[in-house]
Specification:
Blueprint (H helix, E strand, L loop, with lengths): L2 H14 E5 L11 H8 L3 E9 L5 E12 L5 E10 L1 H21 L5 E6 L4 E4 L1 H7 L3 H4 L13 H14 L3 E8 L5 E12 L5 E10 L15 H7 L5 E6 L4 E4 L1 H7 L3 H4 L13 H14 L3 E8 L5 E12 L5 E13 L1
Antiparallel strand pairs: 1-2, 2-3, 3-4, 5-6, 5-9, 7-8, 8-9, 10-11, 10-14, 12-13, 13-14
Helix pairs in contact: 1-2, 3-7
């Protein structure tokens, strides 16, 4: 194909489609792997998003160009492959959003938390970890966390952690972690594996809870992402997630253990079944008023246990907002306080 003919063909394609690279930059005809391979004699490749100008449909493509030469060593034609990777790109976006939500939640809770790859190499810690230990990521990444563990306990910790990595079993253990002030405090540590679509572990999610002074978590988690559910089920409080209108669609296991209920019983506004009739109207009024203002709120009320006994809980609820500041969901935590 002559260079002139190719330019016409690429121009025609440009009339039908908008194209952008992975950074959002305009992808013109001169950026085409076909054009580059034909004009330079070198292999070329590109990942691009293609938008149909008529239908506005968006598709991702991986395009490769490989020049073929004649007997004189000149490019005679270009072998082009075009693979649609829309599903792959959508999956990557979902993972990024999931991890961002997880990190937002992790930076808001009182627990120390972290993430490791399948081999146990820790690559991320939340802010609370660095605040408590007085360290930085360069000190802690990989297996650097050993420096804030007591030398008498470290061999047992390493043995148990390596066993979990090898077997895929969750890790749970209590041991001291050194604070920035040099004082060791006891932490309950739970680590859960996270699986990919093939059932293979691709990372671990860990939390360290100060068992001497438990505090409430303050922020939220993205809907139905496994990373967030793993963390929420590892804390010792009752927890739940509601949509922007207050419809609760998820509770952690501790909620069901305490109330003796199921999701079918509790979803939506079914939670009023475990509230004391003398307090439910006041609770509803406070909740609805807070939701109108899109602000965090805190209140204390009794919740009925599975055996019918009421216990008082301190409840804190915070909104999760998108980039535009609009509330997308609410996260609530209930911490038992005392008997009435």
């Amino acid at each position: 194909m002559a260079k002139k003919d190719l330019s016409k063909l690429l121009k025609r394609a440009d009339d039908l489609f908008e194209r952008y690279d992975e950074n959002g930059n305009y992808f013109g005809p001169q950026n085409s792997p076909t054009y580059i391979s034909l004009t330079t004699g070198r292999p070329s490749q590109a990942v691009l998003m293609q938008i149909n100008r008529a239908t506005k449909e968006q598709r991702w493509h991986y395009v490769q160009g490989a020049p073929l030469f004649d007997e004189e060593g000149k490019v005679s034609m270009v072998l082009v492959t075009n693979t649609e990777i829309t599903n792959q790109k959508n999956a990557e976006k979902k993972i990024r959003e999931s991890e961002e939500t997880f990190r937002t939640l992790s930076n808001s809770i009182p627990q120390l938390s972290w993430m490791a790859d399948a081999e146990g190499f820790i690559y991320w810690y939340n802010k609370k970890w660095f605040e408590y230990t007085g360290t930085v990521l360069d000190d802690m990444k990989g297996w650097g966390w050993q420096s804030v563990h007591h030398p008498d306990e470290l061999p047992k910790i390493l043995e148990s952690w390596r066993t979990s990595i090898k077997t895929g079993q969750p890790f749970e253990m209590t041991f001291p972690i050194k604070g920035a002030d040099g004082i060791f405090r006891q932490f309950l540590t739970r680590v859960l594996p996270v699986y990919d679509s093939n059932g293979k572990i691709y990372k671990w999610v860990g939390t360290n809870t100060n068992i001497n002074a438990q505090k409430l978590a303050e922020e939220a988690i993205k809907e139905s992402e496994e990373l967030c559910s793993s963390l929420a089920n590892s804390i010792q409080n009752l927890a739940w997630i509601a949509d922007a209108d207050g419809w609760i669609y998820w509770y952690n296991q501790r909620w069901f253990n305490y109330t003796g209920t199921t999701l079918k019983d509790m979803q939506g506004w079914g939670w009023d079944k475990v509230h004391h009739p003398d307090h439910i109207e006041e609770v509803l009024n406070i909740v609805k008023e807070a939701w109108k203002k899109d602000e965090p709120y805190e209140l204390t009320f009794p919740l009925r246990r599975y055996d019918g006994e009421y216990r008082w809980f301190l409840t804190r609820v915070v909104p999760i907002k998108d980039a535009s500041g609009k509330v997308t969901k609410w996260i609530g935590f209930n911490l038992i306080t005392f008997k009435k």
